[in-house]
Amino acid sequence: MNEHANYIVLLGPPGSGKGTQAVLLAKRLGIPHVSTGDLFRMHLKTETPLGIMAAKYVQKGELVPDEITISMLNERLQEEDCDNGVVLDGYPRTLVQALALESYLDSADEELTMVAYLSVPNEELVQRLSGRWMSQSGRVYHMVYNPPKIAGIDDEDGSPLYQREDDKVETVLHRLEVYHEQTSPLIEHFREEGKLLEINGVGEIDEINDAIYEALQ
Ligand code: AMP
């Protein structure tokens, strides 16, 4: 591993924009963006044994058990492109995962560089998430912020839009509840370690990204 490796965690509730920020930051730093949500969705789609095991949790908006999640993530970290660090998105989500990550990095003579926490009020999160619709080819729309030209139809190929199972209002509320219950202790943990950078997640995407990037320098 490289002496300038950057191991960055983006923390924030679903819908806080951490995915968008993680992609931008990873690009800026030239390191991979690793999202456990994306990894699970990939396993689900290709129906790997791990995907089949995780399906019932992901579809209900519940956390996949730590053991499965930790081993999936550790495997990803062992890939060569992660040697200079990574931007983690959606991981860790529990204290057990946080401790597992720290012990993984410790055994590789590395440490977490920074944990950026994007804070966004709950009402805003519900509005952002429950308005999200996707096209079959992966384009993302929002009923309020980025609506398609014709309701329910993809602008590019005319196919019907669909809502991610876990973006439906009921599931969104449940995801937020799960988040606050299980992930809030992490914020405390990283704060105590002096690793936590709190960022206001309401505002322009580029400005939020600059704030994270500058804190890192
Ligand atoms: P996300 O796209 O980050 O909202 O993740 C989608 C779903 O994947 C979550 O609702 C969980 O079911 C699962 N998931 C993602 N990351 C984790 C994690 N770190 N621990 C447990 N489950 C996770």
Q: Kindly name the structural category.
A: alpha/beta
Low-confidence parts lasting 5 or more residues at pLDDT below 50? none
Q: Could you tell me how far the N terminus lies from the C terminus, measured between alpha carbons in angstroms? A: 20 Å
What percentage of amino acids are in beta strands? 5-15%
List the ions, cofactors and other small molecules found in this model: adenosine monophosphate
Which helices and strands occur, and which strands form pairs?
Blueprint: E1 6-11, H1 18-29, E2 33-35, H2 36-45, H3 49-60, H4 66-77, E3 85-89, H5 95-107, E4 114-119, H6 122-130, E5 132-134, E6 140-142, H7 169-192, E7 196-200, H8 205-216
Parallel strand pairs: 1-3, 1-4, 2-3, 4-7
Antiparallel strand pairs: 5-6
Brief overview:
The protein is of the alpha/beta class and 217 residues long. It has helices spanning 18-29, 36-45, 49-60, 66-77, 95-107, 122-130, 169-192, 205-216, and strands spanning 6-11, 33-35, 85-89, 114-119, 132-134, 140-142, 196-200.
Structure description:
The chain contains eight helices and seven strands, in the order E-H-E-H-H-H-E-H-E-H-E-E-H-E-H. It has helices spanning 18-29, 36-45, 49-60, 66-77, 95-107, 122-130, 169-192, 205-216, and strands at 6-11, 33-35, 85-89, 114-119, 132-134, 140-142, 196-200. It has a five-stranded parallel beta sheet with strand order 2-3-1-4-7. Strands 5-6 form a two-stranded antiparallel ribbon. Helix 1 (18-29) packs across helix 8 (205-216) and helix 4 (66-77) runs parallel beside helix 5 (95-107). The model has no long low-confidence stretch (mean pLDDT 92).
